[in-house]
C-alpha cells in the first residue's frame, strides 16, 4: 500500500507530519515577506492583508520539505547558476560550481522562526549564528560545493553528488524552462543568467524551490566573492568567445540542453531558416552531458535502472511530441 501511495504521491517521503507551508509574496525578492505557517486560517490572514503592498495580490504557497538532508544538523539550500543563450531553440548552459547557504540555527520543526527555515542570505545575515550550531559551519553561513562533497565523502556518499544531485538538478532546470518556454518572447543575441535554489531530501534527491532572475552577485562572503566573479567571467566566455569560436574555453559552463527541430523527415539548421511567422513543428529534446557532445538524432535509447523522469540522466535523449502553437 505504501508503495502505491508513493507512486501516486512522489513527495510523501518529504512531506512530514507537521503540515508546514511556506508563504511567499508574488512580487518581492531577497526573502522579504516570506513566512512559515501550519494552519489554513493563518495562511488566509496573511494573504488577505493590505493588497496594496502586494502587486496583483498574488502569493505563492509551497509545501515545506519537512525532511531535508541536513548539513551538521542545520538546514541549507543549494544556489545553482544556469545560463540561457536562446529561447528558440532553447539552449541551456549549466554552471558546474555551486554553493550552499546555511541557516544560523540548528534545524527543528518545533519553531517556525525564519532563522531556522529560510536559508536566503538576505535573511540569515541579520541573525547571529547559534552557539548550538556545529562549529564547522562558517560564521558567513556558506560552503563551496567542494566542501559539501568532502562532507559527503565522510559519510561514504560522495558518489551521489555526481550520480544523483547534479543530474537531477540539470533535469529540473530543463523541465522548468520547457514549461515556461511558450510564454517567453524569443529575442536573438540576448542571454540571461539565472539562479536556481534547491533543497536536498534525505536521499539526496534535489527539489527545485525557485528560479531567480538577476541573482545577487554581491561579494558578501568569501564564497560568493570567489564564485560570483568566476561565473560572470565564464558567462562572457560563453556569450562572446564561444559564439565567435565554438571551440573556445567556456570555463565552468557546460551546455546541457540544445533543442532540435525536425521538419517531416529532414532536420534543418535553424540559424539558416528565416520566416516571418513561426512554423508548427514537433519538438525534439536533446540533453547533452557536455558541449563537446554532438547533436544526436535517432531512436530513443533505453534508460535501464531509472524508474522515473526525475532520476533519468541528463545524457538521455527525450522525444517530446508536443505541438507548438
UniProtKB/TrEMBL annotation:
Its main location: cytoplasm. It is found in: Cytoplasm, Cytoskeleton, Flagellum axoneme. GO terms for cellular component: axoneme; microtubule cytoskeleton. It catalyses: L-glutamyl-[protein] + glycine + ATP = glycyl-L-glutamyl-[protein] + ADP + phosphate + H(+). Residues 300-314 have a biased composition (Polar residues). Residues 300-325 are annotated as: Disordered. Pfam families: TTL. Keywords: ATP-binding, Cell projection, Cilium, Cytoplasm, Cytoskeleton, Flagellum, Ligase, Nucleotide-binding. Gene3D superfamilies: ATP-grasp fold, B domain. This is Tubulin tyrosine ligase-like family, member 3. It comes from Periophthalmus magnuspinnatus.
Amino acid at each position: 500500500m505504501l508503495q502505491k501511495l508513493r507512486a501516486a504521491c512522489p513527495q510523501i517521503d518529504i512531506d512530514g507530519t507537521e503540515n508546514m507551508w511556506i508563504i511567499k509574496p508574488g512580487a518581492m525578492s531577497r526573502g522579504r515577506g516570506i513566512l512559515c505557517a501550519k494552519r489554513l486560517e493563518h495562511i488566509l490572514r496573511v494573504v488577505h492583508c493590505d493588497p496594496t503592498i502586494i502587486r496583483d495580490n498574488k502569493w505563492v504557497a509551497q509545501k515545506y520539505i519537512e525532511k531535508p538532508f541536513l548539513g551538521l544538523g542545520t538546514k541549507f539550500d543549494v544556489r545553482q547558476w544556469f545560463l540561457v543563450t536562446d529561447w528558440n531553440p532553447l539552449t541551456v548552459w549549466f554552471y558546474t560550481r555551486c554553493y550552499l547557504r546555511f541557516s544560523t540555527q540548528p534545524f527543528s520543526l518545533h519553531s517556525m522562526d525564519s532563522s531556522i527555515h529560510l536559508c536566503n542570505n538576505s535573511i540569515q545575515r541579520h541573525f547571529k549564528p547559534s552557539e548550538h550550531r556545529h562549529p564547522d559551519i562558517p560564521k558567513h553561513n556558506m560552503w563551496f560545493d567542494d566542501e559539501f562533497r568532502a562532507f559527503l565523502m565522510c559519510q561514504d556518499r560522495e558518489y551521489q553528488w555526481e550520480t544523483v544531485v547534479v543530474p537531477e538538478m540539470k533535469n529540473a532546470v530543463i523541465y522548468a524552462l520547457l514549461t515556461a518556454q511558450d510564454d517567453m518572447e524569443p529575442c536573438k543575441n540576448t542571454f540571461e543568467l539565472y539562479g536556481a535554489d534547491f533543497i536536498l531530501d534525505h536521499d539526496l534527491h534535489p527539489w527545485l524551490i525557485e528560479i531567480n532572475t538577476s541573482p545577487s552577485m554581491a561579494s558578501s562572503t568569501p564564497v560568493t566573492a570567489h564564485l560570483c566573479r568566476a561565473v560572470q567571467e565564464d558567462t562572457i566566455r560563453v556569450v562572446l568567445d564561444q559564439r565567435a569560436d565554438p571551440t573556445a574555453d567556456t570555463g565552468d559552463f557546460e551546455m546541457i540542453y540544445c533543442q532540435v527541430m525536425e521538419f517531416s523527415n529532414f532536420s534543418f539548421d535553424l540559424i539558416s531558416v528565416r520566416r516571418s511567422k513561426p512554423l508548427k513543428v514537433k519538438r525534439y529534446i536533446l540533453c547533452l552531458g557536455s558541449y563537446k557532445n554532438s547533436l544526436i538524432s535517432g531512436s530513443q535509447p533505453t534508460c535501464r535502472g531509472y524508474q522515473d523522469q526525475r532520476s533519468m540522466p541528463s545524457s538521455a535523449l527525450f522525444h517530446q511530441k508536443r505541438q507548438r502553437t
